[in-house]
From TrEMBL:
Family (UniProt): Belongs to the peroxisomal membrane protein PXMP2/4 family.
Keywords attached to this entry: Membrane, Transmembrane, Transmembrane helix
Principal subcellular localization: membrane
Organism: Schistosoma mattheei
Transmembrane segment boundaries: 175-193, 199-218
Keyword Membrane: yes
Lineage of producing organism: Eukaryota, Metazoa, Spiralia, Lophotrochozoa, Platyhelminthes
InterPro entries associated with the record: Mpv17_PMP22
Descriptive protein name: Mitochondrial inner membrane protein Mpv17
């Protein structure tokens, strides 16, 4: 009989932040810091683009009820939005850099947490997966959201009172969204996704989640 193929669980610790553990050039912590910051920056860029579409792009509605004018209005709005998002002057790069910083920090501490989680709960049984998802939602999820809102509240107001106020206003709706979004995705991640594909899987869904968080935070500042 041929020897059993080596397991790669130790080299594939992928969870809410993409954890690329393999590699010979960069230390795993450095990789997570870079990827975490990059994903949060991407989320902020997408959030600012959505904000331009919903709140900034001019509305060329002339008030006419004809179908032709309606089509023209829609085309004008689309062209206006495309113009806005392709002009770098319309982006707030200070906010993008700021969100990248918190993303890098989250990538760092979440790497430590998920490395510990895989050591304590190894395997893909239903019980193990359920424990991982439960801990994800009662521990790292609330902590990550609280840090995100406290950080942005402080950056926007430069006061701790403003930071706690932002967290009080945003935490509950953000956490409810987290409970809707992440449990099913993490169940699939922990139980079904092959280790070799977990990086791509989590990068994709983390980018969507970061876009939502940044867009939600931007609305709270208005």
């Amino acid at each position: 009989m041929s020897p059993e193929a080596p397991r790669c669980e130790k080299n594939c610790k992928i969870a809410r932040s993409p954890l690329i553990y393999k590699g010979h050039v960069y230390h795993p912590y450095i990789k997570n810091i870079i990827i975490g910051g990059g994903l949060m920056a991407l989320g902020e860029i997408c959030a600012q683009s959505l904000k331009m579409y919903f709140f900034v792009a001019p509305n060329y509605n002339s008030g006419s009820n004809t179908d032709l004018c309606s089509v023209c209005d829609q085309e004008s709005s689309k062209k206006s939005w495309i113009y806005l998002i392709t002009d770098t002057k319309n982006y707030n790069f200070n906010t993008i850099i700021r969100q990248s910083a918190i993303g890098s920090f989250q990538g760092f501490y979440q790497f430590i947490y998920y490395s510990w989680l895989d050591k304590v709960f190894s395997g893909v049984s239903l019980t193990i997966v359920a424990k991982k998802v439960l801990l994800d939602e009662v521990l790292i999820g609330p902590i990550s959201l609280a840090i995100f809102f406290l950080y942005n509240g402080f950056c926007d107001t430069c006061t701790m009172a403003g930071a706690f106020q932002r967290c009080r206003q945003s935490f509950l709706p953000g956490y409810l969204s987290d409970l809707v979004y992440w449990p099913i995705l993490q169940t699939i991640n922990f139980a079904l996704v092959p280790p070799g594909y977990r990086v791509l899987y989590v990068i994709f869904f983390t980018s969507l989640w970061n876009t939502y968080l940044c867009f939600f935070n931007a609305r709270m500042t208005n």
